[in-house]
Amino acid sequence: MTPLEKRNLKLGLLFCAPWLIGIGTFLLYPIASALIYALCDYSVLLPPVYIGTENYRELFTDPLVYKSLWNTVVYATGSVLLSTLVSLSLALLLNTKVQGLAFYRTVFFLPSLMPVVAGSVLFMWLFNGQSGLINAFLATLGVSGPAWLADPRFAKLAMILMATWGSGHAMVIVLAGLQDVPMALHEAAIIDGATYWDRLWHVTLPMLSPVLYFNVIMGLIGGFQAFTQAFIMTDATGSPERSTLFFVLHLFNVAFQDLRMGYACALACVLFLIILSLTWVLTKVSARFIVYDR
Amino acid sequence: MTVNRRRADWPRAFAHVPLGILAMAFLTPLVWLVVSSLQPREQIGKVPPEWLPRGYELTLATGERLWVTPPERVGTERVLVAPLAGPKSGIPVLVSPRDFSNGELRLAGPSPTSVQQRLPAKLIQRVPGYFVSVSESSAANYASQAARRFYVDPRQISSRIRPLFANYEQAILALSTDAHDKSISLGTLLGKSRLPWTSRGDTSRTVTFLSYLANTLTVALLGVLGTVFSSALAAYGLSRIDWPGQKPLFAITLATMMVPFPVLMIPLYSLFRSLGWLGTLAPLWVPACFGGAFNIFLLRQFFATIPRELSEAARLDGASEIAIFFRIILPLAKPVLATVALFHFLYVWNDFLGPLIFLTDPDTFTMALGLQQYQSQSGGSEWQFLMAASVLLVAPVVALFFVTQKTFIRGIATTGIKG
Q1: Which fold does the domain A62-286 belong to in CATH?
Q2: Which of A28, A122, A292 is most worth mutating to test chain B (most B CB atoms within 10 A of its CB)?
Q3: How confident is the model at residue B12 (pLDDT cuts 50, 70, 90)?
Q4: pTM tops 0.90
Q5: Are the beta carbons of A116 and A97 closer than 8 angstroms?
Q6: What's the average model confidence in pLDDT over A164-170?
Q7: Confidence class for position A32, pLDDT limits 50, 70, 90
Q8: Are residues B123 and B222 in the same domain?
Q9: Same domain, B222 and B364
Q10: What CATH number has the domain bearing residue B300?
């Protein structure tokens, strides 16, 4: 090792020292502990007791695990699909160099800034079955609205709609991606006689695919960790009929209400595995469609 | 150019229609939040909804003016009269105004066919078909009389647009929690016992809106300072120093962004418990001081674009690596540092799961947790106060957005493009 290499190694370690300590203490150590606690009976109050794969075996027979997993999958898929669709449409509309772009962008972006706690309280009021604004609006169309958050068939949809309201964040990312699509490609296509829709399908969307992929992955990772809205809107119960008992809400209740931290860690490890495999599968599948070449 | 521009740009002309509709849909919940927060209780939950906060004012015979509930119809108008002759002389009866005119009361006989009686009578009182109650906002000032309910003619009531800002005072009071804290409240300290955010000067209720705000700002400030500094250090080490760990550590950094918080939550809870940090603010800001993966990523992408020659020139002049970091790179990176600071502030402001788990003592609650606690105790009734409390949580974020709009939009846009 040359003196320069030695100096650089020292400097590199020095600059990254806080982050290395941080990764170790607040990331690797907790992950390792979670894997170990998952094999233990652990209530935090007493030291963990090793019980082997008991927690994982229980997990497969716990009906609430299946129920909460299903709720989470429906919510995550629904909110990602709808948010992607809405954010893409908004960005495409805004990218037509429409007048008042800054105004529209602000209007669509603002809701995504809403703290989830405040947003949940607001949507409980909007989705109120008797006197909520949404049902009042539906009534003017002659539709008698459902009880939304009190109806097991509509509670998840209500939360998906709330998530879609916050898709302005994704819109800003898509809009930036759209502005990066080279004009030359569009001009070439126009000369070839391509219509707007031809260009959307053959130029814009392929060029946008990395950005859309990024939004979908981030949306799914976030969606699978949905917790706060269900915790607040249902007072931690996942009501009605456990239709909004999301996986993390179930995990939270197991950990902090039943004080079964070991079992909760097993649930957390399963969640980690699901997110990892989902990302991996999506990356593999989308590799065929994504155009990274600019 | 020979391209027909008009045809190519056709969606532009029509974009305003869908954009306008969508803008309404996105804006309405926010407008409704503010409108509801300014309405008196009587207006909350009206079907169909009323958009303008409205107050109804009644002027009493004494000249006193009161805010009252909207007039409610209880029945038709009646008059209370006392006959001056006949078997029931002097006993008041309630009749329709049609049956009393010119000091004469017409009474139907015992059966429909019997002869109608006409008796002289005197008017005691007209009873209008509507009543109003003294509204909550006036109730405090109107303690003199016992009557809270008045039968009135609707024409006596004047109605006008009146945002009820007192809801915010009520919300701030409601946000405060009972606590065992014996320390002196700010109200006592300032010699004022009726500041709304110090909860009625009651010394047993010292955990207040103001402590939530102070806690949130403490976590945000310490976290922002810590994470900006440490993340910048790491980003520098990952982009501007050639050492063997550079590439693997960057890969690890990116990978850590995929770790869901629920995996870390329980071991961290147990760790902070053994450190005695539960119930203090430390778990919410100390980890940030070791840097954050997303922040390091943002900063690294920017540092990598700064020409190497700048560092080389400084090195030839004998500047140390630390000096280059502080004197050259950080000043150039101000916009990105601002983005990181902004994002971390927002993260702290909006965070709920962290405070929910680690904060056990109402003294240490943050704004978001305080709002949730109030919400779960209120049982979902007093919507006007809940909306006011929510506005208090949202308003600073919206204000921050308008002040730092450019930093915001640029920061978010870069996360997707370079991701």
Answers
A1: MetI-like fold (1.10.3720)
A2: A122
A3: low
A4: no
A5: no
A6: 94
A7: very high
A8: no
A9: yes
A10: 1.10.3720.10
CA distances to A204, A211, A214, B386 from B419, in Å: 18, 8, 7, 39
Distance from CA of B344 to the nearest CA of A (A): 13
Clarify whether residues B226 and B365 are in a common domain. yes
Q: Is residue B122 part of a domain?
A: yes
Query: Would you state the pLDDT for residue B111?
Result: 64
Q: Do B220 and B150 belong to one domain? A: no
Q: Torsions phi, psi of B354, nearest 5?
A: -55, -60
Rounded to whole angstroms, the Cα distance separating A253 from A261 reads: 10
Q: Which of A285, A243, A95, A67 is nearest to A179 (CA)?
A: A95
Q: Say yes or no: B147 and B237 in one domain.
A: no
The two counts, helices (H) then strands (E), for chain A are 15, 2
The answer as to whether B260 is a domain residue is yes
Q: Which domain holds residue B120?
A: 57-161
User: What does the mean pLDDT of chain B come to?
Assistant: 81
pLDDT in tens, A194-251: 888 889 998 899 989 989 998 999 999 999 999 999 999 998 888 888 999 999 999 9
ipTM for this model: 0.92
Query: Cβ contacts (< 8 Å) between A14 and chain B: which residues?
Result: 237
Give CA separation, B82 vs B93, B218, B355, in Å. 6, 72, 69
Residue that is written with structure tokens 């690596």 in the block: B321
Distance from CA of B271 to the nearest CA of A (A): 9
pLDDT at B179 over 70: no
Are the beta carbons of B266 and A105 separated by less than 8 Å?
no
Q: What is the pLDDT of residue B109?
A: 65
* Ordered DSSP codes for B225-293: HHHHHHHHHHHHHHHSS--TTHHHHHHHHHHHTTS-HHHHHHHHHHHHHHTT-TTSSHHHHTGGGG--H
Tens digits of per-residue pLDDT, B247-262? 999 999 999 988 999 9
Please, are residues B176 and B205 in contact by the beta-carbon 8 Å criterion?
yes
Q: Indicate whether B357 pLDDT > 70.
A: yes
What pLDDT sits at residue B23? 94
Interface with A, mutate which of B19, B286, B356 (most A CBs under 10 A): B19
Give the separation between CA A126 and CA A118, rounded to whole angstroms: 12
The pLDDT of A60-75, averaged and rounded, is 95
Verify that B62 and B121 share a domain, yes or no: yes
Rounded to an integer, what distance in angstroms lies between the CA atom of residue A39 and that of residue A34?
Answer: 9
Residues in A closer than 8 angstroms to B390, CB to CB, are: 117-118, 121-122
For chain A, what percent of residues have pLDDT higher than 70? 99
> Do residue A272 and residue B273 have CB atoms under 8 angstroms apart?
no
Query: For residue B200, what pLDDT is reported?
Result: 39
| B134 C-beta neighbours (distance < 10 Å), count | 19
- B402 domain-assigned: no
Instruction: Work out the minimum CA distance from B180 to partner chain A, whole angstroms.
Output: 23
* Inside any domain, residue B174: no
- Whether B220 and B320 map to the same domain: the answer is yes
Q: Could you please report the per-residue DSSP string of B306-329?
A: S-HHHHHHHHHTT--HHHHIIIII
Quick one: how many helices (H) and strands (E) in chain B?
19, 11
Record: contact A16-B249, CB cut-off 8 A:
yes
Q: How many domains does one find in chain B?
A: 2
Do B143 and B284 sit in the same domain of this protein? no
- B27, B321, B393 ranked by CB distance to A115: nearest: B393
